[in-house]
Amino acid sequence: MDITVILCTYNRCQSLAKTLESVARSVVPNSVQWDVLVVDNNSTDQTREVIEGFCLGYPGRFSYLFEPRQGKSYALNTGFARAGGEVLAFVDDDVVVDPQWLYHLTAPLSGGEWAGAAGRILPEAGFVPQPWMDARSRYGLAPLAIFDMGSEAGELKEPPFGTNMAFCKKMFLKHGQFRTDLGPQKGSERGKNEDSEFGARLLGAGEHLWYEPSAIVYHAVPQNRTRRKYFQTWWFEKGRADIRESGIPKDTRWYVARIPLHLFRRLAIWTLRFMICMHEPQRFSSKLKMYGIAGTILECYKQGHLAE
User: Fold this and answer.
1) pLDDT recorded at residue 192
2) Taking the model in full, what pTM does it have?
3) DSSP state, 219?
4) Domain range for residue 273?
5) pLDDT classification of 190: cutoffs 50, 70, 90
């Protein structure tokens, strides 16, 4: 089995070096051929120098690719077009991977039963959740890109996060590439869902995904991401991205300015829960629901006007 690791990066040369160093220490059987394709998405710092240093230090293992069009989805698709592996593994530039990560993530794809696989994304060592974080909730730490479905392996019924996932390359040929209207873009908080949308597309088409808890990456948690404002903004933009991904819901007869009326009812319910809840994590979780619904309402309004 041939594997290509695709890593897209933008202006994170310091964390990128740590990520590449951890990937370079990957323990993979000699029978498996693997390489790492690092796509520079128009960085202005020392990203290119960092990548070229690894290309020189590990000849044939690392390669550099430049993508001038700003936007992570452009970089991902450029990486896919250049990748030679029959299995493509994806990782971000702000994680440290476990030495066994690559092997454990991709091994389930060797038999042809699974279209893709995902592993656990855990916070970096020393991370302590803030008192207002609902860390026990499945998606309570989603703004920190934490993805942990537990320690039991099995079929995955929901889309994985992009910093720890792998797909058979033929899935992209069969179902299309990453959507360029989604995904992080320079100077914009709008970018999300390019990774989960692809996973959802496969699941919707009847493909099967595997969850492998032993494939672990540790995600950095910068201080600015541990603030309430960051969580609120993340969920607001997630609500907007969900509408850009799937369109305005059509499960109701009643609309106001192209906005489904039931969204206002949901907003009122979560606002009331926020007002009466005394337990801080649950109270803030209700507030985040409000922000997510507000983002959904705003994007429905915008999409409705674009359609006119």
Assistant:
1) 74
2) 0.90
3) E
4) 227-307
5) very low
